[in-house]
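Per reviewer request, we include the raw input and output of the structure prediction for the construct analysed in the revised manuscript.
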Amino acid sequence: MLLLSRLLAPALLAMLAVPAWAASTAREALKEATAAAQKWQADAVLTHVSTLRGQGDGKAVDWLYSFYSPKAKKSAIVTAKDKAVTDVTADVRNTSVDPLGPDFIDSDKAAEAAIKAGLNIDKKTKGLGYGLVVGNQAVGKPQLFWSVTVMNDNGFSAVTLNGKDGAFIKRDEKKF
């Protein structure tokens, strides 16, 4: 028994020493994510922000920031946790090439707008999907959109919001 406790004690201490990640809004690590992306390519511009680990208060344990380099014609995904960059995955497939620009509401405001629009969440809800992207290019009217999605065993419910002011655009629901 003494031998077992001597073997397990270091493992237990190591587990306790691992920091718990603090949740943050999408903008809180944006400066660090942008700096990391511009180390990859100096002309990198932010084209997409997302998480699948969002909370009802608009914060998330981690955020994925997609950047596009017009010169290299390549993209990179920067992952941030606890307001710090933890990974840069360079030269990924281009999914978004249109810059978001600086004029968008933060994820906490998107959460408030989603609740106001009737999405059934509260500030303690976890496991939400958040996404910010430019859409409507095909119809010649590029626009910023926030999408906030909640999933459960019965399906999903989502709202699409104006990315600049949080105005309600549409609601989607799917039952499984």
